Amino acid sequence: MSSGRPWSWRVEGRSRFPPCPGRSRIVGVSGPLTGVRVVDCTTVVLGPWAAQQLGDLGADVVKIEPPEGDTTRQLGPMRNPDMGAFYLAVNRNKRSIVLDLKQEGARRVLQRLAEGADVLLHNYRPQAARRLGMAYETFRAVNPGIVYVGTYGFRAAGPYGDKPAYDDIIQAASGIASLQASLFGEPKYVPTIVADKTSSMTVLVAVLAALYHKARTGEGQEVEVPMLESMAAWVMVEHLYGETFVPPLETAGYKRVLNRYRRPFKTKDGYLAILPYTDQNWRDFFAIADRPDLLEDPRFKTLSTRLRHIEILYEELGKIATTRTSAEWLAELDRRNIPAMIVNSLESLLRDPHLEATGFWQVVEHPTEGTLRLPGIPAAYSKTPAAIRRLPPRLGEHSVEILREAGLSPAEIDTLLASGATRTARD
Fold first, then answer.
1. Domain of 366?
2. Could you report the per-residue pLDDT of 19-38, keeping only the tens digit for each?
3. pTM above 0.85, yes or no
4. Separation CA 129–CA 134 (nearest Å)
5. End-to-end Cα distance, the chain
């Protein structure tokens, strides 16, 4: 392997990235993280979605994949092998290099990449990371300023520290599944990978905080983002409730959201989310419903008294909702500024008029996968707009490009290819 100066991504401002084919609005932009270099060794959703968001914000993200690729490449419908819908959802704004980290040559390449990186993400459990030579100390030795982020199921210091974990496991461990028992009579999983995605946002915040520290001091650091702790913090924002106090003043669990009547309400012709919240909202709602008895009922006068009688209140709301059509309710509730919204299906969400007006859904042309629809970037920046600059890469699409940038000679690259330590995309 070539020696010399630490490898650099050579980020050179706006010309660094080619325009994204089919992008409708933003061309040639520099996001708030332009110049930040990220090595993404994660798989599935938690880490890749966090890395994608760093890429959306302008970071140059190199995705390290095993020879068989990220497992999500095989999930969901696909037009071509290794390009499943699941993978496409969380891997834009990245370049892909294959490294078989079981081989010494590939591990040396990874260290070389880490020399010029600001951030390294991985989701190996602690023991596995050590076996692969991916402990923090390994990378700190070649780059003291690196922000090294490990994200996995459980904090390493605890008794669960080296247990495997996926979304279902953390939904069970964090109390999410048991919360469903109040509605369904038995524990159930939420039908979205909420633990993965919530923990991913925690990773994003952790990376940005560590980068800010590095910008001020030049110091890198090791950051641990465990899923259970992330989800426990998330779940217990409202549900710690009476257990906030020692000794407890009440049991845990926020009564309004555990109420079996809390759901979209059936109208004459469909379903509607209706949520009078303030005292004025409720007064207006009772007036619209022509229910002076509820307007004068002391149980429903204030937020605290409503909460104590929330099940009765929501049961009444459900009865009232059936008296009008969804459109009639929306017109009247909007006029009074009472929160209400249609109930979208996954299909109708794609055609939601608000999301259409804001250009949230991005329709792009991928060079091998054809026309794709991707979610846009939720946050809008007035000075440093984020953008879809690169579409999800094929497996190993940028292997040779990245190895050259790392300073490897053609002969060294050929050796890595011949040994299977790396591979390129198959046309």
1. 13-234+357-419
2. 333 333 434 557 999 999 99
3. yes
4. 5
5. 28
